[in-house]
Specification:
Length: 713
């Protein structure tokens, strides 16, 4: 009657002979009968005590079942307090051994029994076990409804402990066909970690998720995927390093060393399931994987998984855009640009323009000189959208267009074209500054372009605005300010900016600023102070290298920061070589050059410095060889072009035409190079063209007055 009231339909392993009480049903299951005649015929007097004991246990169990059913009714009505009082009256602790035994016996080799096979006496039916497990689960739900999450999680643990102890190898097949054991267990598996999270006990939640994945529990593939995804997200965003599991789960081929590794392993498994159509597409999986692989710098692996996403999930433009982001982050800008060019190809003309792809293309092109013209095309397509393009995107497009025009001007060999491109660059950057006043990048690039064009007053104003936006903490901001001040011959102010920035700058910025300070010392003719600054700089680099060597147990991939530090060390040795050459200390100069070449043998500046050392010693042929080696490594290296022309001029009048061609080439590449103009004036004077020489000397003088201690770009 209680079963009928509850609305539950139970299947019986052995159909009852008559509609009797729950106690009668349990006796029937145990191979007994409540009928007096049958009782007397099946049992001898010696078995009366055993039967009496069984009867008492059965009646006790039916009392517990009745409370379970009554508690369910109260829970369904939303009376959590009443349901909890009813459930607390069930002696789960006392029934636990019998429940474990019943699960073991009833799930062992689930084959049809022959007539001679009897179920062991005093073993609960699976329906009784299911009913009791449901009572525990509903007790947990009631506690959850009352806001007592920790107690609710502990109740779920009771279910998991009972079933896991009875089934140490996982849930056998076919259990769900006969009873609700599997259903109750699965609900407890899913509920427990959520309860721990609500209670703020994330370590316990992670342990619960791992427990659900440790053995095969016949979870539905989609539910199993949800558990794996939830565990991965908690490991990624939990904000703490959880202890690693002592026992390796079935899905882990190798032991992960950290939360991130475990999360990535889970997400890679889920992506594989998605690829093979074992589970439905879930955007959260690729989003979590994108975050995890981005943080760990595995961008190419991330690109591989975007490529494996089934067609139809993303549009072609979105897929190309995501892949381009991955390859750009990995440093493969050319590959990224090739993908982005597909977005604006003729095959996509009928589709709506994908603005993020166009802006990304313009941004990548703005980072170097060789793709300047492509960058102009990308940015123009965004601007041509007019009012349909959001204001912020339009501002960014104007910024990138201005940068790309400036880069294109530096590549131009025509003076008229260069002047036009430089004017367009400033126009678009100023337009971007008007519509994007809060974007510090616009102000930085506007300051840089004005500085390159020697509009020093405007450059300084924009640089100060950029400094205010960045609160003066940007290393490149301080470097740009220093170079602008040095262009105005304000060397003391420039050094003050460097000293101020050294205390706040990051490690790499600090090293670069120290080198800039040493260059300023050389310009101010303070060689000994410059050498001391270089010594401090090299000491810091060496100390950091020793620390990394001690803490590193294995060879690690060279990061971009490590590469920048390596390049900086090369520059320091090259600077010292040139400084010692000026001081006439040839042995020290050669030692410094050997150090630089030992780090990177094929550096054009190292061979240029070698040529200058030879030239200072009047070894002109050796100097020409060194300059030639420098130009073979980088044909457009302007200092070596100018130095080659200078040596040719010293070799005699027969070399003057060749020297002139070198100088003109240098000015086509770098029109503001005052040394090229000065040597062109000397050459014209040697040829007897005094008026022309005077003009060249005047240009060299004016450019020298506005020349920074180092090139702006």
């Amino acid at each position: 009657m209680l079963c009928a009231c509850s609305g539950e339909q139970f299947k019986f392993e052995d159909p009852p002979q008559s509609p009797q009480s729950l106690a009668t049903r349990d006796f029937s299951v145990s191979g007994l009968s409540s009928r007096t005649g049958d009782w007397d015929s099946k049992f001898e007097d010696t078995q009366v005590d055993e039967v009496e004991s069984t009867l008492k246990e059965a009646l006790s169990l039916n009392y517990e079942e009745a409370r379970a059913l009554l508690g369910r009714l109260e829970y369904q009505r939303g009376n959590y307090d009443a349901a909890l009082q009813v459930f607390q009256g069930i002696d789960i602790k006392g029934l636990t051994p019998r429940m474990k035994k019943a699960i073991q016996e009833r799930t062992r080799q689930r084959k049809p029994r022959s007539r001679g096979d009897n179920v062991p006496v005093n073993v609960l039916s699976m329906h009784s076990v299911s009913l009791l497990l449901e009572a525990i689960l509903l007790k947990a739900r009631s506690l959850e409804g009352l806001g007592r999450s920790i107690e609710a999680a502990k109740e779920c643990k009771i279910i998991l402990d009972i079933v896991e102890s009875a089934l140490p190898n996982g849930m056998p097949e076919g259990v769900a066909d006969d009873c609700k054991l599997q259903e109750m267990f699965h609900k407890a598996l899913e509920l427990q970690p959520d309860l721990w999270i609500r209670a703020g006990l994330l370590d316990e939640a992670i342990a619960a998720y791992r427990r659900a994945l440790m053995r095969p529990w016949n979870l539905d593939p989609q539910k199993l995927a949800t558990v794996q995804k939830d565990l991965a997200s908690l490991l990624l965003y939990g904000g703490f390093e959880a202890s690693l599991p002592l026992q390796l789960p079935s899905w882990a081929p190798t032991a992960p060393n950290s939360n991130f590794e475990e999360a990535i392993l889970l997400l890679l498994i889920l992506m594989r399931k998605v690829t093979y159509d074992e589970i439905d597409w879930d955007a959260d999986i690729i989003n979590h994987l994108s975050y995890a692989l981005s943080v760990t710098g595995q961008y190419e692996l991330l690109a591989t998984h975007f490529e494996q996403v089934l067609p139809g999930v993303y549009s072609r433009a979105e897929r190309w855009y995501f892949l381009a982001l991955c390859y750009a982050a990995a440093g493969h800008n050319d590959t990224a640009l090739n993908l982005l060019k597909k977005v604006s190809a003729s095959s996509e003309a009928k589709h709506e323009p994908h603005i993020p792809s166009l802006l990304l293309g313009a941004k990548l092109c703005s980072q170097g000189l060789k793709h300047a013209n492509d960058g102009v095309k990308f940015a123009r397509k965004v601007i041509e959208l007019g009012t349909t393009c959001p204001k912020h995107f339009s501002s960014q497009a104007h910024k990138f267009l201005g940068i790309c025009y400036g880069n294109a001007a530096r590549l131009s060999v025509s003076d008229s074209e260069r002047i036009l491109l430089q004017r367009e660059s400033l126009n678009y950057l100023n337009h971007a500054a008007l519509s994007g006043k809060d974007d510090p990048e616009i102000m930085y690039n506007l300051a840089l372009e004005n500085a390159v064009q020697r509009n020093l007053e405007a450059a300084l104003e924009s640089a100060l605005m950029y400094s205010d936006m960045e609160a003066g903490n940007s290393g490149r901001c301080c470097k740009l300010l220093t170079l602008i001040l040095s262009s105005e011959q304000r060397y003391i102010d420039a050094e003050s900016v460097v000293d101020f920035a050294l205390d706040e700058a990051g490690r790499l910025d600090q090293l670069e600023l120290l080198r800039l300070k040493a260059v300023l010392k050389i310009t101010r003719e303070q060689p000994q102070q410059a050498i001391e600054t270089y010594r401090i700089l090299l000491t810091l680099i060496q100390a950091q290298r020793e620390i990394e060597a001690k803490t590193s147990d294995q060879v690690k991939q060279v990061t971009s920061e490590a590469q920048e530090e390596r390049n900086l060390e090369i520059s320091v040795w090259q600077d010292l070589a040139l400084l010692y050459a000026k001081l006439g200390s040839w042995a020290n100069a050669e030692t410094c050059l050997d150090k630089a070449k030992s780090i990177h043998f094929y550096s054009p500046r190292s061979w240029h410095a070698t040529g200058l050392v030879f030239e200072a010693q009047s070894l002109f042929k050796e100097a020409l060889v060194s300059f030639s080696l420098s130009l073979s490594l980088e044909p457009d290296y302007v200092p070596s072009i100018v130095s080659t022309a200078e040596v040719l001029m010293k070799l005699g009048s027969h070399s003057l035409p060749i020297a002139r061609s070198f100088l003109m080439n240098a000015l086509h590449i770098e029109p503001t190079n005052h040394e090229a103009w000065f040597n062109l004036g000397k050459l014209s004077k040697m040829e007897g063209s005094l008026h022309q020489a005077a003009d060249f000397f005047q240009a060299a003088y004016e450019l020298r007055l506005s020349a920074p201690v180092e090139n702006f770009v």
